[in-house]
Amino acid sequence: MIPPLGESPAVTLSKRFLLYLTLGLLSILFMLPFVWMIKTSLMTAQQATTAPPEWIPHPFRFDNYVVATKAIPFWLYTRNTLYVAIMNVIGMTLASAFIAWGFAHYRFPGRDKFFAITLATMMVPFPVLMVSQYAIFRDLGWIGTYKPLWVPAFFGHAYNIFLLRQFLLGVPRDLTDVARIDGCGELRIFLQIIIPLIRPALLVVALFSFMYHWNDFMAPLIYLTDEKQFTLALGLQSFQSRLGETAITHLMAATTLMVAPVIALFFLTQKTFIEGISLTGLKG
Amino acid sequence: MTGEEKRALKYGMAFISPWIVGFASFLLLPMVLSLYYSFCDYSVLNPPAFLGGQNYQELVHDEVFWVSLYNTFYFALFALPLGTLTALFLALLLNSNIRFLGFFRTVFFLPSLVPLVALAILWQDILHTEYGIVNELLGVIGLGPFDWLGDPALAKPGLVLTTMWIVGNPVVIYLAGLQDVPRALYEAARIDGATKMQETAYITLPMISPVIYFNLIMGCIGVLQIFALPYVMTGGGPARSTLFYSMYLFDQAFAYLNMGYACAMAWILFGMIAVLTYSAHLLTNRFVVYGGS
Predict the structure, then answer these.
(1) From CA B121, how far away is CA A3, in angstroms rounded?
(2) What is the pLDDT of residue B144?
(3) Measuring CA to CA, how many Å separate B267 from each of A126, B12, B258?
């Protein structure tokens, strides 16, 4: 690197000190809410609601977590959420890859028009579809079941189709031509050659659909009627609205339990995660 | 048509057929129905009864509709620019050739992983008048205490503040954009004696302007549909000060079963988004620099 002109090393040093100081303070500021969440989840209700706020639980109330998992019921909701999320992961990755391959590999009349329409659908705000989708699912008898929450995933999503197509455009045609000469069918080419090739991109799609459905609130709110079917997001919200401030410590314990798996998942897949976000945000 | 072309058509259509089926049944059909319902009295329990433009006329005179519209634009007007500036600031800091980049990036990114419902519940407590941490910190510099979510004048700023914590996604995106800026440009500028500020203003920001533009558009579409956060945090209150467009639409549809009315609201929202993105598109040529131009 060329050293900055007209600045003495001392000035540069003090500037770097200022830079790290700013970063350090901001880091503390960004981490404080997490500390807040965890410390509140470990306090007595009385200690959690004293002013000025206290930071060290006294005593440590680990049983808040036990109470919270029973009040929500946490494990049932986790199972429900996992069911919806996993069905979406399977449907979304498979369908989007399948469709993206059709758009990327085969040159047929009308393809580019279809693709343009596919991209255009991303502009449609959800409220436009919300009411009539509800009416359609109602006619199908799907209200109060999980079907409205996962069946559409099996038809792909424009964004994921777009993302996977970008990857698939890079697959050399020689590869598929050779396979064809060897007598390999089109479906087998897709399943045995293409799918393994784009595994990193599929992981991005899978990860983000999982996250989306772990977090999603609006769709479960619209379609789920029975409390036993609730997902975590919905369960947490109904727990919060049922109870007043007195239960803040239990609420925070439940909140921590909902946040923790997401953070754990992030640390397990950090590279994919960061790459996925840069990728989806840069190539608009 | 040659055999090769026929084969491409057959298999191409076969592979995209799930999309066509899904598009027809979960997008096109709902859109057509929703447009039709917007001209009807429809409660989902009875068949729709055609009204003409009555829903749209009623909306014009619906005070709550205007309140929700005002709230939404107020929120967007602050949350979007402030969020973008915060994200850009953080990304520029992280792009200053620092050590422990991965660590700092993770720290700023982690909050955006928090599910919205969890975020809402957590920040209700953080913004609490008596024992919330925000008032505690402001107290250090002699401000407050403020009744963030209880005062109609402060509830929207309180929500804006909450969203400042979740700028991690754009930070990661901007940082990736910044790291793609060719080093040679900076080296040339240094030889010409440019200051750090000039570098940022004349090289860095123009070079990543397409990324900023894209994120602003997506952010705008997102912010106009904000729902879960205020729904859980304030339920629209106090005194309707955080009743946003999507919340009022949701209430009309699923609480009052005025589904036709809700559809009319949805199409007005769609119209606003279309106009916004189209005007932004017209502005692009003037302000956004794409590589090579």
Answers:
(1) 48
(2) 75
(3) 11, 34, 15
Mean of the per-residue pLDDT values for chain A? 91
Around B136, how many Cα atoms within 13 Å sit in the side-chain half-sphere?
Answer: 19
Tens of pLDDT, residue by residue over B80-91, are 999 999 999 999
Q: At what angle do helices A270-282 and B101-109 cross, to 10 degrees?
A: 70
Contact at CB, B115 and A233, closer than 8 angstroms: yes
Cβ-Cβ contacts under 8 Å between A and B: the total is 275
Q: Could you say which residues of chain B have pLDDT below 70?
A: 287, 289-293
Interval B171-219: pLDDT, tens: 999 999 999 888 888 889 888 888 888 888 888 999 998 899 989 988 9
Residue B69 is encoded by which pair of tokens?
């519209």
Q: Which of residues 166-225 of B touch A (CB under 8 A)?
A: 169-170, 172-173, 175-177, 187, 190-191, 193, 196, 210-211, 214-215, 217-218, 221, 224-225
Q: Kindly provide the ipTM of the predicted complex, given to two decimals.
A: 0.91
Using alpha carbons, select from A98, A54, A10 the residue that is nearest to residue B19.
A98
10 Å CB burial of residue A28 (0-12, 13-18, 19+) is exposed
**Residue B37 buriedness (CB in 10 A; 0-12 / 13-18 / 19+):** buried
Taking CA–CA distances from B30, the nearest residue in chain A reads: A132
